[in-house]
Every structure is written in C-alpha cells, then in structure tokens.
Amino acid sequence: MRIRPYDGPARQVRPHPDDLGWNRPPDPAEVDPAVLGALLGRHGWQRRGGAAGRYGRWTPPGPGGGGTSLLVPESRAFPDSDDLLGEALDALARSDTPSAREVLISLAVPSDEIRWWRDTPSGPVGAAPWIVEERLRTAARQMLLAAALATRARAGYHGARHRRSAAALLEHVLVGPAAEGRRLTAFAPVPTGRPLAVRLHQALCAAREAIDYERATGGMDAFDGAVEAGVSRELTDALITFVSGTEGARIAVAWAPGAGVPEGCAAAAEPVEFSPGDLPALRAAGARYLQEEPSVPVRITGAVVRMRRSGPGGEGAVRLRVLAGAEVPHVRVTLDEEDYRIAGHAHLVGLPVRVHGRLERRGGFRRLTGASGVVPVQVDDAERDRLMKSLQENLDFFEEACGEAYGGED
Question: In degrees to the nearest 10, what's the CA dihedral of 198, 200, 202, 207?
C-alpha cells in the first residue's frame, strides 16, 4: 500500500470568498434573457405587459412591488437588448426585495433550487423564536447530507460511512436567510450539486409514497423499496426534525432553467408535502432501517491512534485511523493478547496494520467485531515519517499504553 507523500504537490485550497462567482454581479453579456425571465417568474415576479416580442415589464412580488419594474428583453435580437439587461441587473442588485438576491445568485452560479417551507405560528410582528429558525436550518442540512450520502451508496442506515465524501458535496451549496423561521432556500450549483438535488427529489417522493402506503395498509414494505431511491434512517430523522412542531411542511426542487431537466425528472415538480400525521410512520421506518441494516465484512488498513487495556496481559481495545478498506474515519476494535501486541509494535515502528472483521451497525459502523489476522503493512518513507511524528507527539500516552501492553517484557 502506498500513501501520497506529504512533500508532494500541495492540496488545492478552497478559494477566497471574493473569488467566487456568486460574489460578483453577473455579466449582462453572459445572461440569457429567457433564463432571467424564467427565474423572475419562479420567484414570484409578475409580468405586466411590455412590447410583444421585444421585452416584458416585471414587477416584484408583494404589495409594495407596484413602484418598481424591470424591462427584460425576450431575446438578443434587438440592438438595445444588452442595455436593457444591464439596467435590469443593476436594478436587481439595488432592490431590497429578497427574491432579487435569489435571482442574482441563480444567474451568477446556475443552480438547482431547493426550498423548504414550515407552517408554524408567527411570533410578534412576524418574528420567529430562535429555536424555530435553528430547527429549520438543522433539518435542511440533515436532509441535504442524507441525499449526499445516498449519492455515495444506497443503504437504510449509513452511520459514519461516507460522511467525509458526502460532506464535501455540500461545500459549494449556498443557503439563503431563513425568512421568519418558515422558509429557506438552498442553491446547488449544477456542475457539482445536481446529483444531490436529483437524489433528494427522488428520495422525498419515495418517502411520501411509502408513508401513504403505510397509512393506507399498515404495511412497511414500501420503505424497503424506497432505499433504492435514497430513503434512509438519516432522511427519516431529518424529516422528523423538519415536520415536528408544525401544522405542515413541504419541500420543492426547481431545476436551473439554463441547464435543462435531469433525466427521469419532471420539468415542474410539485412540492412534496408532509404533516404531523406522518411522524409515526417516519419513526417506525427509521427504527426499521437501523435494525435491518446488516454488518459489513471488511479488511481495514489503519494507523493505531489509541491503545488501552485493563492489565499487563489479555485482550485490549485499539482505535484505528482508517487509511483504506472502509468509508469511515476511525474504528474501534477489541484485539486478543497477540494481536494487541502486534498492533503496539507496528505503531512503535511507524507502520499501520491490516485487520479483518465486520463493521458493526450498532454505534454507527464505528466498531469492528470479530477482528483477526492483525499484520503490519509496509508504507512509503513519507507516510512512515508522518506516523512516527504522530507517535512522538503522543509519546507519554503511548509509553503508558504500551507499558500496560508489554508489562514485564523486555
């Protein structure tokens, strides 16, 4: 096994926020008038006439929108089209209408839009209690993470598996303000986020169908088939958080107008609605997924980062930082006396170990059971130096652990 040398090419760092596309107003020359018109319509702007075939006059949503309007050309067929587009974009940038900002974001970074609504009682003067907005944001993030996990693997319960790669898929998703704790919008950039948006839409539809089936028949079988669409314990937990404390809630996914409709998806998808009456089915489905997801046979290569046992002999517990063999960052494993000794020696000389066992679903697939066959693994010099440096930084701990492990031996 070879690990990338640490003196090799530097990992690409995340760009500074000022360098990101959504932090700059869109260039009129790069804006498709048809896309701008579609976004305005999506965000509640009203078309109120205009020269037929040349431009449309758009006013913002809400009772105060009558005094503001945009002239948006229908195409670039006329000489003044670029001027009209530039003026419309400038007016959007100056507008204090929340939807204007969302339109500009979708123009700057073509994105699929994911919207959440929660029907909750209003606070004084439209304000929302802190916990209401926090619940909305927490549920939205849980839902996006569940969808990202489903793009990596289909499972009724993911636990700690695939968490790093799934979280990386969320890095470029933009999230707007939570209006009064009731409404939230996320923008998933098409190049990186479309698989996430598609999977979330399909999983929500499958969850809705499975709930309806359970409420009509009392059977949970539909939840088993829904796993293939992306439904999981993580998604049911997110929906429970989202729906609890509301009179109803819904989620909608709208595709980026300039990128077309994904294969197998409807062009205008209706919001998927959930209600407090769905909570018992969601809780039962989550428990079912947790109970029925099987343990996984694996062969893990990992670096020893912690060792502990109660006396100078016998079995001991080891924590491994996983390098290969499983999509989890760390696992805990109980080893017999001989394997524990091998793991300690391997760490002292800067080598990872390879071990066979089963990732146990209890605890989130963070524990390896039935472990056997512990052997040191050769790595290149750079990785070995890094492991040795880790040992030196934790020398006191490992002297104590290994003293327990080898107590009385030379």
Answer: 180
- If one counts every other C-beta atom within 10 angstroms of the C-beta of residue 233, the result is 23
In a domain, 388, yes or no: yes
- Are residues 267 and 312 both part of a single domain? no
Please check whether residue 334 is in contact with residue 385, taking contact to mean a CB–CB distance below 8 angstroms: no
Produce one character per residue of 38-55: b if its CB has 16 or more CB atoms within 10 Å, e if not: bbbebbebeeeebeeeeb
Q: Is 100 helix (H, G, I), strand (E, B) or coil?
A: helix
Tally Cβ neighbours within 10 Å of residue 276. Answer: 13
Q: What is the pLDDT along the chain (410 residues), one digit of tens a residue?
A: 444 433 434 334 444 433 444 445 678 888 888 898 889 888 888 888 766 667 888 888 876 555 578 888 888 877 778 888 888 888 888 887 888 888 888 888 889 999 999 988 766 655 667 788 889 999 999 999 999 999 999 999 999 999 999 999 999 898 887 776 788 999 999 999 999 999 999 999 999 999 999 999 999 999 999 999 999 999 999 999 999 999 999 999 999 988 888 988 888 778 999 999 999 999 999 999 999 999 999 999 999 999 998 888 888 999 999 998 988 999 999 999 999 999 988 888 888 999 999 999 888 899 999 998 899 888 666 666 665 665 555 444 444 444 443 333 32
In a domain, 20, yes or no: no
Residue 155, both tokens: 């499972």
The alpha carbon of residue 172 and the mean position of all alpha carbons in its chain are separated, in whole angstroms, by 10
Q: Is the model's pTM score more than 0.90?
A: no
Domain presence at residue 369? yes
Domain stop point among 70, 97, 124 = 97
Domain interval for residue 129: 111-292
DSSP string, 230-286: T--HHHHHHHHHHHTTSS-EEEEEE--GGG-PPTTS-SSPPPEEE-GGGHHHHHHHH
DSSP for residue 404? H
Number of domains the chain is built from: 3
> Do 37 and 82 belong to one domain?
yes
Q: How is residue 131 written in tokens?
A: 């916990």
Which of 292, 318, 345 lies at the terminal end of a domain, its last residue? 292
